Amino acid sequence: MSYRDVEDLLAEGGIDVSYETVRLWVLKFGKAYARRICKCRTYMIDASTAPRGT
């Protein structure tokens, strides 16, 4: 998904930002957001594959 695609999606929701603003958000928050997603997915995988007590 491109920055312009994100700009268009946000515009549909009534949020007026430029693709450059989206790019700056990615640079500022992207790595932290990706780390949180990875941690969450790891937890979900661990919880779903953990042996269940009978």
Describe the structure.
By secondary structure, the protein is mostly helical. The protein has one domain (3-49). Helices cover 76% and strands 0% of the residues. It contains two helices and no strands. Helix 1 packs across helix 2. It is elongated. It starts with a helix and ends in a 5-residue tail after the last helix. The relative contact order is 0.10.
Shape: elongated
Task: Give the termini distance in whole angstroms.
Answer: 45 Å
Report the radius of gyration as a whole number of Å.
Answer: 17 Å
Specify the oligomeric state. single chain
Strand content: under 5%
Sketch the topology as an H/E string, one letter per element: HH
What can be said about the biggest beta sheet? none
Tally of DSSP β-strands: 0
Structural class: mainly alpha
Number of domains: 1
- Give the low-confidence spans: none
Mean pLDDT: 81
Tally of separate helices: 2
* Helix content range: over 70%
Descriptive key words:
2 helices, mainly alpha, 54 residues, elongated, 76% helix
Topology of this structure?
Elements: H1 3-12, H2 19-49
Entry summary:
Helix 1 packs across helix 2 (19-49). The protein is built from two helices and no strands.
